[in-house]
Amino acid sequence: MLKRLILRTVSAKEDEAAPLLWATAYGFCILFGYYVLRAVRDEISAADRGNLQYLWTAVFFAMLVAVPLYSWASSRWSRGVFVPLVNRFFIANLVLFYAALLLLPDSARAWIDRVFYVWASVFALFAVTVFWGFMVDCFGNEQGKRLFGFIALGSSLGAIAGSATTALLAQQLPPFTLLLVACLPLEAACWCALVLHRRFGGNADPARVENRPLAGSAWSGMALVFRSPYLMGIAGYILLMTYASTVLYFVQADLVRAAIADRAARTALFASIDLWSNACTIVLQLWLAARVIRWFGVGATLAALPVVTAAGFLWLGSAPQLAALVARSSGVAASRNA
């Protein structure tokens, strides 16, 4: 019944239904786990607002180390080994963080929080990067045009489920338990990746291109960007939008810290913001984004996003209150994701 429903609602062929469902489940689980951890990370930004600029600097240097390591690992192992290895490495880290928070004295909490903040920021990049890299390996260019929209929708549903779970449980569970909650969907994602690899990806056949380690390095990818005006334009767009998002992030930390003193309540609030952002994202993806792109084109649609962001900043600047922050953050995040 589920297969027939997929074939009726998605432009998928008979033999694509099963891998599409497994890929969508993989995306659902990865985003579920990430959005459980995202609220925990963002609460730390409010709790340690005075050191937030140093935490961001630490994230930058951690990325400089992590990206070459990622390139080295992906060039050493095939995806069937590499993808579950990355996910389970993160799961092991979460268990270690939980043990440290539970067993070490309270005086160590601030430093554990700071290390976790940097770690979670690295996790946010690599978990999603590995997922979409795997999807590109599993599905060809023509298939991606037809199927990736459905996979992205499943990922958005996972983000909603993770945010809703955190908003519901943050004030109900003992401290730090959310770290263990995130391990469950991440382990489920490992099994989804293994099924995709073994049943639909040629398993371990070394003759298949997708089962070979990736060629090149992080530096070769950077060189390719600098040689292409098109890629340089994309990089500049992302740079400027990230700068604007960073300003908002610092304002958000100030407003939330001033408005709410309880850490569990702050975590629940950040999860609620993510919940509404992702709910709006699905609405925009299903009913608005495709129509706007068809009417105005991709360039005009992308150019409209900075205008929406600027309007949100003007609103927040004229009314620097928590309600305005929540509305502005949810609306702009939904527009960017869609």
Rg: 20 Å
Which outline best applies?
globular
Low-confidence sequence ranges: 203-209
**CATH architecture label:** Up-down Bundle
Assembly type of the chains comes to single chain
What does this structure look like?
This protein is mainly alpha-helical. The protein has one domain (13-337): MFS general substrate transporter like domains (Growth Hormone, Chain: A, Up-down Bundle), CATH 1.20.1250.20. 84% of the residues lie in helices and 0% in strands. It contains twelve helices and no strands. It has helices at 2-9, 17-47, 52-76, 79-103, 109-138, 141-169, 177-200, 218-227, 229-259, 263-296, 298-318, 322-337. The longest helix has 34 residues, at 263-296. It is globular and about 55 Å long. 30% of the residues are buried. The model is unreliable at 203-209 (pLDDT under 50).
Question: What tags apply to this protein structure?
Answer:
about 0% strand, Growth Hormone, Chain: A, about 350 residues, mainly alpha
Summarize the structure.
The protein has 338 residues and is mainly alpha-helical. It has helices at residues 2-9, 17-47, 52-76, 79-103, 109-138, 141-169, 177-200, 218-227, 229-259, 263-296, 298-318, 322-337.
How are the elements arranged and paired?
Blueprint: H1 2-9, H2 17-47, H3 52-76, H4 79-103, H5 109-138, H6 141-169, H7 177-200, H8 218-227, H9 229-259, H10 263-296, H11 298-318, H12 322-337
Helix pairs in contact: 2-5, 2-6, 2-7, 2-9, 2-10, 3-5, 4-5, 4-7, 6-10, 8-9, 10-11, 10-12, 11-12
